Structures are given as C-alpha cells and as structure tokens.
Amino acid sequence: MATHLSLRNRTKEMWEASGRVYRVLTGQLMAGRGLTVFPDDVFLVSYPRSGNTWTRFLIGNLLRPDQAVSFANVEAIIPEIYFNSDRSLRSHARPRLLKSHECFQPLYKRVIYITRDPRDVAVSFYHHHVKAGNLPDGYSMDEYVPRFVTGEFDSAFGSWGENVQSWLAIRGDNPDFLLLQYEQMLQDPEQALRKVGDFLTARSFGNLNTSSHIIRRAVELSSPDRMRALEKQQSKDWVLTKSTRQDKPFVRSAKQGEWRKTLSRAAAQYIENAWGGIMQRLRYPLSNEENPTTLSDTAEPVSSRPRF
C-alpha cells in the first residue's frame, strides 16, 4: 500500500510540474514572485487597500499625458504582477513600473511604498472581501478585525504590520525607497505626485514633465468621482473586479478616518494593541490621543480570538 501511495504522489508531482512548465511556456502562468526583475524596474508596493490603485491612476496619468488612464488600460501602463504573465511582462516597454503587494523583496531595488492608517485599511479590506464573496453581507466587523490583524486574508502578503515593517526596517533610509502616506496624498495630491515624478526622473524614467498643468491634469483625471464613473462602465471587464459582486463598489469613499465611524472602540484598540508602535512611527494618532466623542461605541467588544 505504501509503495502504491508513494508512486501515486510522484505521478501527481510530475503532472503538476509538467503543467507548470506548460503554463510558463504558453504564457499562462502569472508572474507573481516568479517575476523576471530588470535593473531599471521601479515597483509600486503597498499592503492591499492602501491606495495603490488610485496611485496607479495618478502616476499613469503623469507618465501618459496624451492618454487618460482607465480600468481598461491601467494593466498596460502600470501592470500588476499577479494578473500578468512573466512572459508578457518581459515584453513590456522598459523602464517598467510594476504594482506589487509583496513583503520585503530584495530583488526590488527601486520602490515607491504606500502606507495607510491600518484602521482605515481594515474597513476598506472588509468591504473588499464582501465584494469578493469572502465574507457574507452583515458579517460582524468585530468578528472580522482579529482575522484581519492575523493576516488571514491574502496571507501571502503577511499582515499589515508585517508588510509595512518589513519595508521600513530594511529600506526605510535607502534613497531608492520613497515612502508615500495615503493621508498626505489626500491632503495634497499635487505635491505627492510631483515628489513621485522627481523620484522617477532621478531613476529610470528620464525627464518627466512635472509642470503644474500636467500635474493638475493627472490629479483631475484620477479623482475618486471619475474613477467611480469608470468603474461603473468597466468593472465587468477589469481583471480585479470582473469576477466580484457588481452591486458593491471597488472605489469607495476614498477618505481619511472612516474607521472612526465604523470601528467600535474595542476594534480600534485591538488594531492599536497589535501595531501601535509602527502606527506612532508613521504618526497615526492612537485612540487615547483622539477626542473620545469621535469614536464609535456601538458595536460589541471584539473577541480575543476570531470565531469562524
């Protein structure tokens, strides 16, 4: 019996290996961590739901002043490594700007990294998983938060804290690492985009036009209202949303501090207990530094362990 099982397992492994080779040769295997990295690549990295898609629109509209970015062409302008094969990405015009959600990756030499308050990330990620069908309507936010903190969803990217800390600890002081904070981008998107333009110009992208009217155009074409309108037209075709619920938006409020109206005190505290040190380093005020009247107190306390 053991011999038969061993033979069956080896046969299965051979079939899986041959299938992988076939998908690589035919360009069907998505790049992901198997991506071929070139020395002039720049990576746009963040933990999921931290503003990466909005930033792709902003930068794409800066890179292509003669072409407006939409969900129909964003993968051609700033492709995501999880939805494009390595074969197709190798043929992409260089220098490449590529979207990734990876924890620290030593092959990524030039990185634009986006952070966002993890309490807002939790809220946004919750709605994303409802849209994707991973959570049912009405699922308790207080049940969800502990699962979010442990990095249960999209575990390949670690938790928010693991992802952020991995980059800040190893690359935080490197001149080829640009840290963008979503909240600062919301307050002054033109200044943030000009900073990105300077970063790209000093690396692989030549002399980008960062004149005021080009920056202003890019910001206007990347407004949440325009992105929401485009989503209504193109959601069924975009790779990230075509298989998700069409009655739930991908582009939501795009605001700062939504967690104050959505998370219970206990839920916010649960996140802060896990990552308070990193949050303070990034200057995200903790609940004990907030006005108590701005915090929600309507939900039940968060369980110390999630229920499934």
Write a concise keyword list for the protein shown above:
6% strand; 308 residues; Rossmann fold; globular; alpha/beta; 4 strands; 46% helix
How does this model look, in words?
The chain is α/β, with parallel strands linked by helices. The protein has one domain (28-294): 3-Layer(aba) Sandwich (Rossmann fold). It is built from 13 helices and 4 strands. The chain has a 4-stranded parallel sheet with strand order 2-1-3-4, with helices on both faces. The chain is globular, with a radius of gyration of 21 Å. It starts with a helix and ends in a 27-residue tail after the last helix.
Oligomer: single chain
Number of strands: 4
Q: β content, as a range?
A: 5-15%
From the helix content, strand content and strand pairing, which structural class follows? alpha/beta
CATH superfamily (homologous) name: P-loop containing nucleotide triphosphate hydrolases
Number of helices: 13
Rg (C-alpha, Å): 21 Å
Head-to-tail CA distance between termini? 37 Å
CATH topology: Rossmann fold
Low-confidence stretches: 11-28, 292-308
Mean pLDDT: 85
- What is the CATH architecture term? 3-Layer(aba) Sandwich
Q: What is the number of domains?
A: 1
CATH top level is: Alpha Beta
* Strand and helix order: HEHHHEEHHHEHHHHHH
Strand count, sense and barrel status of the largest sheet are: 4 strands, parallel
Overall spatial form:
globular
* Helical coverage, percent range: 40-55%
